Amino acid sequence: MGKKLAIGLGSAFLVFLIVFCVVPLKQVSYAATEKYQAPETYYVSEPYTVRIPYTVQEPYTIDHETVWRTVTKYREVTMYRDAAGQTNVWQERGVTQYKKVSMLEYLIGY
């Protein structure tokens, strides 16, 4: 009688162990952090030169007579514009990952 009871309890325990502990039966999700490289745009002021025209009245003499004429001249002006550059930086984001766990571990987690 004791031998049959031991075999019965041992069989029940073995079935429990296989079903709840060994075989991964349940897929669970968990939150994790993932690192990734993202492009980041930055702006730099770059100088460039512009020739701006302007007019002036200049006197000049013809046969001892002073005559005014309009002359177009240019001046160079340094201006700045924003130029976009790009670089990659490491960032983190939250992701959901999945894994299979045994039923016992799943029940303990809840």
Can you describe what's shown?
This protein is of the alpha+beta class. The chain has one domain. Helix content is 25%, strand content 70%. The chain is built from two helices and two strands. A two-stranded antiparallel ribbon has the order 1-2. The longest helix has 21 residues. It is rod-shaped. The model has no long low-confidence stretch (mean pLDDT 84).
Low-confidence stretches at least 5 residues in length (pLDDT < 50)? none
Radius of gyration: 42 Å
Count of distinct strands: 2
Count of domains: 1
Q: What would the keywords be for this entry?
A:
110 residues; alpha+beta; two-stranded antiparallel ribbon; 2 helices; 25% helix; 70% strand
Q: What is the strand and helix layout of this fold?
A:
Blueprint: H1 2-22, E1 24-62, E2 65-102, H2 103-109
Antiparallel strand pairs: 1-2
Quick recap:
It is built from 2 helices and 2 strands, in the order αββα. With 110 residues, it is α+β, with helices and mostly antiparallel strands.
